[in-house]
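Dear U.,

For the methods section draft, I wanted the exact inputs and outputs in one place so we can describe them consistently. I've listed the two proteins in the order they'll appear in the manuscript figures. Please don't edit the C-alpha cell lines directly; just add comments below if something needs changing.

First protein:
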Amino acid sequence: MANHHQHQPTTDPHQRCEPESPMSLLPEDCIAAIISFTTPRDACRLSLVSSIFKSAAESDIVWECFLPHDYKSIISYSSSPPYLLSLPSKKELFLSLCDHMIMIDDGQTVFYMRKQSGKKYYVPRFFHSRHHPIWLMERD
C-alpha cells in the first residue's frame, strides 16, 4: 500500500524543501492569528520556521496587534512627520516606533516602544535645579 502523504522531492533547486507538519496544514490567516498572541520577538523567531510561517509572521494582522491600540492618535498628536502612517507595512511602523522616539503633548512627553516586548513607554520631562531626572511611565 503506497503512502500518499510522503514528501516528494522538488525538481526546482531554488525551492526550499519543507517537511509537512500539522501546523502547515492550517490556513495562513489562522497561523497569523496564533502568532499575534505572542511577542514581537517570538513573531520574528517564528518567521524562520517555514515559508508559510514567514508570510504569516510578517503580515499586518500580526503587527497590528503589537502596535498600541491608540497608535494613530499618538502619531497624529506628535511632532513626528505624518509619513509614519503611510509606511508600507505595520511591521515597518512598529519598528520605526521602536527605533525613533516621538515627541507628544506639545513636546512635554517622549513616547517610545520596546522591540522585544512591544511595551510602550512615556517619558515626561520633569526639571528641577541642575538635575534632569526622567521618570518612565507605562500607560495603557
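Second protein (the one for the lower panel):
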Amino acid sequence: MDRCGATVFVFGKRSVYLPVNEAEMVPHCQEEFEAETCVKNYARKCLAPFPRQIIGILLQGASQVIHSRCKPEGVKDYLSHKNCIATTISDLHDCMDQLVLGLNAIAKAPADDRIPMACCAFGRYQHCSIQPIKNKCTDDPKAVEYIGIKMIKGIKNCFT
C-alpha cells in the first residue's frame, strides 16, 4: 500500500522519476494507473470504514489529476512546468511528509475531531506546497495554478 500510495501521490516519494518528454510520460502514466488500482484494491479489501473514506477522498482528487495529466493536452501542460516541479520537488516532498504526520495523528483523535483535523492538515499541506512554488518559480507564472491547484489541490478537491 505504501509503495502504491507514494506512486499515486508523487510528492513524498523521494525516488520519483520526473518525466522530461512525451515518450517518458507513457511508462510514467502506466505506473500511476497501476498504483491507483493497487490503492483502490487495498482500501476496499483491507481498511476499516473511516480510513477507507479518507483514502477515497484522497484518491478521487489524485485520480482526476493522473487521468488529466496523462491525456495529450495534460502531458503538454505537465511538461511545460517540469522545470518548476524539479526545482521545488524537495520542498514538496517535505510538505507531503508533514501531511502524512498530520493524517497519522487523526487516527488517535476523538471521532468528532477527525474531520476538522483532516481539513486543517490538508490546508497546511496546500499552503506549505504553494510557498516554494511562488518563491522559486518566478519564471513560470502559471506554475502555482498548475502545480498548486491542478496537482496539489486536486489531491483533495474539497478545500477552497
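Candidate sentences for the figure legend, describing the second protein: The radius of gyration is 15 Å. DSSP finds seven helices and no strands in the chain.

Thanks,
Y.
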